Amino acid sequence: MTESFAAMIIDQDEAGRPNGRLREITLADLPDHPVLVEISHSSLNYKDGLAISGKGRIARRTPLIAGIDLAGVVVESRSPEWKAGDKVIVNGWGLSETESGAFTRFQRLKPEWLTPLPSAFSAEQAMAIGTAGYTAALAVLALEDWGNLIKARGDVLVTGAAGGVGSMAISLLSARGYRVVASTGRAGEHDYLRSLGAAECIDRSEFSAVSRPLQAERWSGAVDSVGSTTLANVLAQTGYGGAVAACGLAGGSDLPATVLPHILRGVALLGIDSVMAPPDKRQRAWDLLSGSLEAEKLASMTCVAPMRDLPVLAEEIVAGRVRGRVVIEIA
Ligand code: NDP
């Protein structure tokens, strides 16, 4: 087995700030969890951007290997649940926060974090989906579980549309028959968003100013990855009995809103967490992805990059300049 291999490690810099650097490590540097996996692919998520660039405190201890998504093959296992040769994926479970993460050729993992690679996807496709896609699927499930209102009642809004969660949400919602409106700050991406299934594109500036707590009813549901005033305005524009799935904070973690949409229109704010979601929810999300995601759309929203590009890509995703999804090839 390879003596040393590259890993993206979050550590304190000279000024005491945590950020990411590529370093050579060995198997002795990995935690003592029972399942050793050789990782072939990972992916870039907003959270990875924050961790590597140092723009957000993601790692709660250092040094720690970054990366929240992985796909690979089991090499050795002290757990009866897994054997050498099994193809697996991991999304979340504290990787890169409290647990050693995915940007490394080998990783040792707890058996309960592993999911079999869904048969519908290759390792590269599963990472093109990654946490962003699996989160979008959790959001779609949450909206559908809220009630069967959405199809009957009109438009579903997706904010942060050209990002990873947004691109995946548009593809899934349009494949399931909803009329999707995409909110983006990038006018140059309208053709891309229409190709994923958006029926209409609007400018995200429509949501950026604090406005009235109840506005004209525009949406029967929404998937929001932006938070802050955007989410407050989306809630204020959601129609009677509708629901908004809140996934992210790309525009801020605050929520300058009132209870009026909730108590006067019965609007639901559905919280979406991918990191600690239980296995049955994960399975439902991956089943939805297997059934509703078109391979050509997935390919059109994905590019592939080597691990050495992570520092530059981290800055790009935090600045909102990454379109769709980036698969990271682990060399
Ligand atoms: P991306 O960077 O790929 O997408 C975020 C998008 O948000 C951008 O592409 C941009 O879309 C929009 N955006 C960025 N900055 C701003 C801003 N200041 N104001 C308004 N819109 C902005 O990230 P991901 O899709 O990977 O993640 C999206 C969010 O979801 C992140 O906050 C992430 O932390 C969160 N997340 C949460 C998960 C959970 O478990 N709840 C799991 C995965 C992600 P455009 O250019 O189209 O306007």
Automatic annotation (TrEMBL):
Ranges of residues in domain Enoyl reductase (ER): 20-328
Database matches in Gene3D superfamilies: Medium-chain alcohol dehydrogenases, catalytic domain, NAD(P)-binding Rossmann-like Domain
GO molecular function, one term: acryloyl-CoA reductase (NADPH) activity
Signal peptide region: none
Superkingdom: Bacteria
Entries under InterPro entries matching the protein: Acrylyl-CoA_reductase_AcuI, ADH-like_C, ADH-like_N, ER, GroES-like_sf, NAD(P)-bd_dom_sf, Zn-ADH-like_protein
Protein name in UniProt: Putative YhdH/YhfP family quinone oxidoreductase
Organism: Aquamicrobium lusatiense
Record lineage: Bacteria, Pseudomonadati, Pseudomonadota, Alphaproteobacteria, Hyphomicrobiales
